[in-house]
What does this fold into?
Amino acid sequence: PALYGESFGIVLIEAMASGTPVIGGYNPGYAFVLQGRGAFGLVDPEESERIASRMEIFLTDTKFRKLWQEWALNEVKKYSYKSIVDSYEKIYKELAAQGKKSINL
It folds into this structure.
């Protein structure tokens, strides 16, 4: 786990997309990605016993790992190219509309 802040958890999303369980240091970027069931993977990066405990659960509890993987594979869909492009396009249009309003003032 990263010891310092991450702006966004792209490495987590890449791992999740391949079905790999992830454990990440609790920081805003990782917390944004690991919400809901994914929050199980957030730990204090300096708590090695907790990290080891989470690793053990992912390695030994097949049922839990499968539930987590199902969550992860579904969660990463919101970061697909299509979703991201649509989000950026919406923001761009909203900003453009605001710009038109301020010009008319």
